[in-house]
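My hope is that you will study the record closing this message with an eye to the fold:
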Amino acid sequence: MWNSIKERFRQSTLRAKLILAFACIIVIPFVIIGGTLSWLYMDSNQSMIVDAAVENNKQIIRNIETSLHPILRLSMYPVQDKTLLQMMHKDYTALPYPLYERELDYDTAGAIVKNNMLLYSDLIDSIVIYQTKNRIIIGRSNDDYMNHHYLENGFSDELFFKAIINKNGEYMAVGVHPDKLMSPNAKPIVSIGRAIVDPYSREVLGLILLNISVDKLKTLWGDIPFTEHTSFYLVDDYHRIIYSKNKNEIGQPAADIIGDNYVQVSEDQPETRQNRDHFMIVSTSGVTNWKAVTIIPKNELFSFVNTIVRTITISLLVLLGLSILTSIYIATSITRPLLNLHKKMKLVAQGNLDVTIDIQQGEVGKISITIDNMLQEIRRLIAKIYREEQDKRKLELLALQSQIKPHFMYNTLNAIKWMAKIQGASGIEEALTAFSSVIRFTAKAEDDFVTVAEEAAFIRDYTKILEFRYFNKFDVDFDFDSQVASCYTLKFLLQPLIENAVFHGFDGIAYKGHLSVRIHQEAGSLIMTVSDNGRGMEQTTQELASIGHSANELNSIGVKNIRKRIKLHFGDSCGLDITSKPGDGTVATVVVPIIRNREEVNTNENRHRG
């Protein structure tokens, strides 16, 4: 059955295939996209609400910390005020009139608290300054009520009192607790406490309590109902509820109100936690160690999302129908110009390269323009190849003709050499032998490559001829590395450089010239160096030689030819470098790759010419 379906698909028209393909391409992505969008929307909506709750928690914590920082600074006031500090040191039982002194200091301290401290922050509900030496309150902000029985029998036994004293002058944020000292109905408050410590003797003199009612603390944030039953709690460092919408929950253990999930909350857990029914977002203050806790029910979080998902699904189905109709139209608009293109390409396949494909619209039109340009380029290349083949035949004919002259010269010189030998002219014989070797090397017509040994032998013969020509004008030494003797290189790379050194470098010098020719390998390259102690060149002369212009009869054509041949065969990584200074000689260095066999020669030629 599957084979039958595949065969029917192969036999169907391009239009039918495109419509079927478009339908599959549209339906499958719509299903995937629809499901993905629904999931992403649910996930993003969830993430958005959870992130908003996290940010709201953080903002509440920031607001609390920002509001408490001035109060923390204010708790240092008794240490910084000399009058209050002196009062904290007094032992009233040792004074002649203790009650009078206490009343006087109480009024003074009360005025300082009311005028200088209480007005410092609207958040402060009451302030109490307690002296431990006499176990009395020397200053407070509220004169209306104070529980003296609690002061004498229970205040100093409170856990937060002992904790503040043990902090030895550092601040302490006291979590939710009833205000038994200053409030007749013991309303819930939080406090900032600090032990008053003598800055010199480090003696603990007492403490200061700055009390903040929970109702005033609530003014630091606003309720944001993420869902209908979202709950927010502020929990102190003893895990008791500081704030809840239900006032009866204030002061209760958080685990009893929030549930067992709160028991699992720890400092190293992430801010967002979840179970089967709820999300819990927890942010902790670095100043007070209080926690802002937001509880969001999952079922309320996704109720609105489900409605949106149904709407998206219906919209996707409608769009799916419209897309299938659009795919039919697009398939027809594609196949019509393709059929026209097919007819024209059949003519090209039959050898008619003069076809013009006249389709201008759409992507097929761009293809037709490209094909037209390609056919035009093919016609141009065919004409170029034809012309090059014609030129090649002419050059081959000239090359055959040019080979006759060196062979004729070689045979003639060989005859003269034997005549010189018979007549005992050994100098002429030696010169003709070297010249014959040069002519024989020049007459080689296989290709441009020879071995280093052959090039070295040619250079020896050529310099021997120059020594005969310029008798005792210069001497020459050779340094050829035997390890590269069998490597291949281009012919005639060194001859123009030696010619420049002898003809122009040694021209007009009053001392004997010295020519050094060295061939060796270095870092994977073949290095050929021709250096002389001649008159050298100006920078301008070097630049003119490098671009092929004549400069003081320098063989710049040969230099340009060397550079051109190296670039043609080996690319831009190799080349010829000439360094020279007037009166300081010239050094010409040729750098080419190491080629060890004939196969590498062919590979190198194909790479740089193809």
